Amino acid sequence: LKFFLEVARTRKASSAAKRLAVDYTTVSRRISSLEAALGTLLFEKSRTNGFVLTAEGQRLLGYAESIESTLHMACEQVSGSGVALSGHVRMGCTEGFGSFFITPQLSHFVEAYP
Predict the structure, then answer these.
(1) CATH number of the domain that residue 40 is part of
(2) What DSSP line would sit under the chain, residue for residue?
(3) How does pLDDT run across 3-28, given as a tens digit for each residue?
(4) Is the residue at 90 inside a domain?
(5) Does 12 fall in a domain?
(6) Which domain holds residue 44?
(7) Considering its fold, how many domains does the chain have in total?
(8) pTM above 0.90, yes or no
C-alpha cells in the first residue's frame, strides 16, 4: 500500500520511486500487481497529468490512508509514548549547583530515561 499511497500523493511513479528509494520499475510493477490482485484499475495514466486515481482508486485511497494512520498509531503505542528520547546529555554548571541540585535529580532522570 505504501507504493500506492506515494503514487497517489505525487501523481508520478518516478517521484514516488525517489521518495521510496527504489527504482521506477519497482513502483510500476507493484502498482500493476496491486491492480491485478484487486481486479481493477486504480490509476489512469496520462502524459500531462501523470497518474490520476480512478473511482476505485479514490475508494482505496481512503482505506489505505486509514490503514497507514492506524499503523503509525500502533507503532507509537508499542514503542512507548510516541516521543522517544535518545542521545547524550551534557551540561555545565558550578560545582556547588551541581553537587546540591543536579546530582540529587540525576537518579530520577536515569530511572525515567535509561
Answers:
(1) 1.10.10.10
(2) -HHHHHHHHHS-HHHHHHHHTS-HHHHHHHHHHHHHHHTS--EEEETTTEEEE-HHHHHHHHHHHHHHHHHHHHHHHHTSSS----S-------HHHIIIIIHHHHHHHHHH--
(3) 999 999 999 999 999 999 999 999 99
(4) no
(5) yes
(6) 2-78
(7) 1
(8) no
